[in-house]
Specification:
It is built from 7 helices and 12 strands. It is α+β, with helices and mostly antiparallel strands. The protein has a 12-stranded mixed sheet. Strand 11 and strand 12 form a beta hairpin.
């Protein structure tokens, strides 16, 4: 369960052809005119596949002093609220080290186990990534997020970056669903509708929007049900992304939605809001239904 849960929070590279994807993309009228003026759809898809702005945004967050407000809700049967936790913290930085100082925490219901560990794996991972209790080094280009070097947790969190930073890559070693995640593989084209549109984000940022939506008749085969990524037309940085993964089979079942809002502060791109809603049903494990919202704000920057 650890690998599967982590996989859906946070590939750095796609290794497959996308020729059929390019042929299948639907353009709106604005993008049709852009193509006539020189916009290259194939180059744009290459950029979507290899984008690093999302990754760099998360690194910027961890490497700068910031506030973190978190609200997590854990549900029981029939989605009855079982527990809620509110957290307010600041990441401090000094001498190339970082640590979280908890300003306040309020819990309603049974959130923790008797050993004061979170009662769900979702919460455990959430804390390790954003409300860690150790002093850590600033992040280098390897983007190692876990404090537990040399453990299973490190490998899991690093694998988790795949679906956060570039959703749609095939994941080796994931039973059943691994190959079904490769939305740019020519074999997956028959399951998806792809499009590039020109839209304005929050009435302020002119964007190219890449969308990949499972076709109504695709059935249960595609695991990635929808992906929408908004790129700033001037910088080609990602300003917003949402995605939905769903699978139901004999071994396990999940339904996970994430929304990530990126913001600029003093020319630094970082994730200012993360919304997560996830359900897990894994054999020999307790079902988990968890929602959370995280809000970040940069303070002093390096």
């Amino acid at each position: 369960m650890r690998f599967l849960c982590i996989l859906f929070f946070l590939s750095l590279f796609f290794r497959v052809s996308h020729a059929q994807v390019v042929k299948s993309i639907v353009l709106d009228s604005v993008m049709v005119q852009a193509v006539k003026k020189g916009f290259d759809v194939s180059d744009f898809i290459d950029m979507v596949r290899s984008d690093t702005s999302f990754l760099e945004g998360f690194r910027s967050l961890h490497n700068n002093r910031h506030t973190a407000l978190g609200e997590m809700t854990i549900y029981g049967k029939k989605k009855k609220v079982q527990a809620v936790r509110y957290q307010d913290a600041i990441q401090e930085i000094k001498n190339k080290k970082r640590w979280m100082e908890m300003k306040s925490e309020r819990v309603e219901g049974k959130f923790y186990k008797r050993n004061d560990e979170p009662g769900t794996y979702t919460a455990e991972l959430f804390d390790e990534l954003f409300f860690f209790d150790d002093t850590l080094s600033l992040l280098d280009a390897s983007m190692t997020l876990s404090k537990k070097e040399g453990t299973e947790s490190v490998g899991n969190i690093n694998k988790l970056k795949t679906l956060v930073f570039n959703p749609g890559a095939e994941i080796d070693g994931v039973p059943i669903v691994g190959k079904r995640l490769a939305i740019f593989d020519d074999d997956m084209v028959r399951y998806y509708d792809y499009s590039i549109t020109s839209r304005t984000y929050q009435d302020t940022v002119s964007c190219y929007v890449f969308s990949c939506i499972a076709k109504p008749g695709a059935g249960d085969f595609p695991v990635l049900k929808s992906l929408n990524t908004w790129f700033d037309r001037k910088t080609f940085n990602i300003v917003y992304r949402d995605y939905h993964y769903q699978y139901s089979g004999l071994l396990f079942e999940f339904d996970v939605t994430m929304k990530v809002t990126m913001s600029y502060d003093r020319n630094i791109l970082y994730p200012s809001k993360i919304n997560y809603s996830g359900f897990w049903d894994i054999p020999m494990k307790k079902q988990e239904t968890v929602d959370f919202e995280l809000n970040f704000e940069l303070l002093e920057t390096l």
